[in-house]
Inverse folding.
């Protein structure tokens, strides 16, 4: 699953990431067993929240769902509306 980013200029990155995560678990009404991030900085920001929920947090080099979503978005934007 890929979580939608939020832009908040008045909040820290940690607060924004935490809010996105909390909003996601409220929406889907389930807690993941594991959260994967690409950068250690993101892991450091999310670690306290994930630990409080008992969720495993890992840094990985590839995020398949994120990479696929980005590829589709770039293809859509590059191809224009309707792929033209």
């Amino acid at each position: 699953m890929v979580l939608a980013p939020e832009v908040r200029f008045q909040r820290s990155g940690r607060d924004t990431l935490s809010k996105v995560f909390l909003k996601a678990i409220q929406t889907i009404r389930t807690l993941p067993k594991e959260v994967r991030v690409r950068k250690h900085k993101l892991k450091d920001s999310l670690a306290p929240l994930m630990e409080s929920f008992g969720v495993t947090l890992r840094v990985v080099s590839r995020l398949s769902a994120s990479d696929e979503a980005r590829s589709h978005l770039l293809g859509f934007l590059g191809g224009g509306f309707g792929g033209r």
In short: Residues 13-83 form one domain. DSSP finds three helices and two strands in the chain. The chain has a mean pLDDT of 81. The chain has one domain: 13-83.
